[in-house]
């Protein structure tokens, strides 16, 4: 897979040897990052133009489900706060829905269960090269956002999690195309059981047309924002900011 930084540098610089040969030290300069991340917005638009906004990820029969479904990313947040929630079977856990919404929410698992539920059997494709088919269930993210009264100013939805990377909570984001896609759900169940810790208990994102690192686990907060500029280093996700992964990991 081509790194986006290489693609953006070639597209933005034309024949310029400065960007084509830029080393990591140059890439970290604020003025260079500003230029490249402006190109990031263009790249996102091109990606969207090449993919059907309404296309569905394949869904499978129960007999096609994988006998083993590996965990991706964190296997246990390992913090005192998460351990306390886990010990209480997540009775005190709440999902905060805030940002550009008219009615901020604090939703328990029971609250989420009161929304219309969507079950779906889909394939998880990990950036590490493995895949597995499993069944997920939860409310559509779109229904939760509607209940919160999403503002017309909102362009992205940011997810903040209970696991920590580099001393800060893990984070990811998607745009409104994916947020309102019928297969984008807040999953509390996997294979007809409550999520286990390794798979993101008590709640994880399922955005089925993207790779596994976009499927944020251990959800604590859902925030509607107008721009990704204030999220991490500005690229919308931990891996995007720190390992140069694609922000839109479409499959």
Overview features:
28% helix; five-stranded mixed beta sheet; Sulfite Oxidase, Chain A, domain 2; disordered N terminus; alpha+beta; 251 residues
Describe the structure.
The chain has 251 residues and is of the alpha+beta class. The protein has two domains: 4-50, no CATH class; 62-243, Sulfite Oxidase, Chain A, domain 2 (Alpha-Beta Complex). The protein has nine helices and eleven strands. The strands form three sheets. A five-stranded mixed β-sheet has the order 2-1-11-5-6. The protein has a four-stranded antiparallel β-sheet with strand order 3-4-8-9. Strands 7-10 form a two-stranded antiparallel ribbon. The protein starts with a helix and ends in an 8-residue tail after the last helix. Residues 1-40 have low confidence and may be disordered.
Per-chain topology:
Blueprint: H1 4-13, H2 17-20, H3 24-27, H4 30-50, H5 80-87, E1 95-99, E2 105-107, H6 109-114, E3 117-125, E4 131-139, H7 141-148, E5 156-165, E6 168-175, H8 176-179, E7 185-187, E8 189-190, E9 193-194, E10 204-206, E11 219-225, H9 238-243
Parallel strand pairs: 1-11
Antiparallel strand pairs: 1-2, 3-4, 4-8, 5-6, 5-11, 7-10, 8-9
Helix pairs in contact: 1-4
Pfam family, one: Oxidored_molyb
Protein name: Molybdopterin-dependent oxidoreductase
Organism: Sphingomonas citri
